[in-house]
Amino acid sequence: MTLLFTSTPERAEAWTRLFADAGEAMVVGEDAVTDPTAITHIACWQPPKNLSRYPNLKAVISIGAGVDQMQPLPPGVALSRTIAPGIEEMVRDWVVMAALMLHREMPRYLEQAACGQWAPLTARPARTRCIGIMGLGRIGRAAAQSLAALGFPVTGWSRSGAPVEGTEVFAQEALPEFLARTDLLICLLPLTAVTRGVLNAELFARLPQGAGLIHAGRGAQLDMNALRDALNSRHLSAAMLDVTVPEPLPADHWAWADPRVIVTPHVASHTDAEEGARHALAVIRAGGAGQPIPGLVDPGRGY
Ligand code: NDP
To answer: Residue 91 to residues 24, 40, 267: CA-CA distances in angstroms?
Structure first.
C-alpha cells in the first residue's frame, strides 16, 4: 500500500510526517513514483490525467469536502471526500456569521458607513426570521444546530428528507413549501448534475419578498444574473456569497460593486493538512480491514 500525494508542498510536509509516524508509505508527486504498481491510493484535489498508469489503484481521496472537481474514475476505484471536523466547524462559523450579518442588516450599515451616514434601522428578533438550509449533510446539520441555538426557527431541505433533530425537514418534492417559509436561504448543497444552477430565477421567485441568500455550496449552483435581477426588483434584499461563478470573481464584476452583495473569496473553510492526512490514513486502514471507507462518495448520486 502506497499513497501518492499530489497536493501542495506546504501540505506535503504534514502528510509525510503523519504517514511516517503511522508506518504507512507515501510518495509526494508523480515524478517521485518509481513503481506505479505500488500505488494503491491517490490524495489530490484533481487526480493525474492518466490513471491507467496505476493498475492497483483502490481509492482516490479528495483533499476537500467536495468532489465536483473530480473526473470520472476507472471502474473499481473508490472515491472518498475528506471528512474533517475543522472543515465542518469553519463552514458552520462562516454561515452563522453570514446569517447574523444579513439578519442585522450589515450590508446596509456598511453602505451607510461608507458615506458616513448614521441611520438606524429597525431590528427584528431572531425568532421572527426563518432560516432555511438547502442540504442537511454534515455541514448543514452543524449550521442548523448553531442557528437554532441563537433562536432562529430553522428548517432544512434534503434529497431524502431524513429527519434531523430540532429541524423541520422538507424532502426534495417539498421545495416550494420549504422556500415559501424561508426568510434567509442558505445553500450548503454539493454540486451535482441535479444541483447545478439550482439557485435560479424560478427558485428566487418562490421565496418571500425581501428574503436574503447565503451561498457556501459551489458557485455553479448559482445563476448570478438571476440574483442580480432578484435584487434589482427588490424581491431579494441582500446576499452573502463565499462561492461564485466564475472563481476568482473578476475585479469588474457587478457583485463586487453592489452594496447588497458581500463576497468572500471561497474561504469558508480550508482543509487542515493534519486532519486531511488523518482522513487518508483512516481510508487506507478501513480498506485494509474490509470496513466501509470514510467519506465514500456514491458515484450515482455524485456526493
Ligand atoms: P454532505 O454530503 O454531508 O451533505 C449533502 C446534503 O445535500 C445532504 O443533506 C443531501 O441530502 C443534500 N442533497 C444532495 N443532493 C441534493 C438534491 N439534489 N436535492 C436536495 N438535497 C440534496 O455534504 P457536506 O455537508 O459535508 O458539504 C456540503 C457541500 O458544502 C460540499 O459538497 C461543498 O460543495 C460545500 N463546501 C463548501 C466549502 C466552502 O469553503 N465554501 C467548504 C466545504 C464544503 P441527503 O441528506 O438526503 O443525502
So the answer is: 31, 31, 9
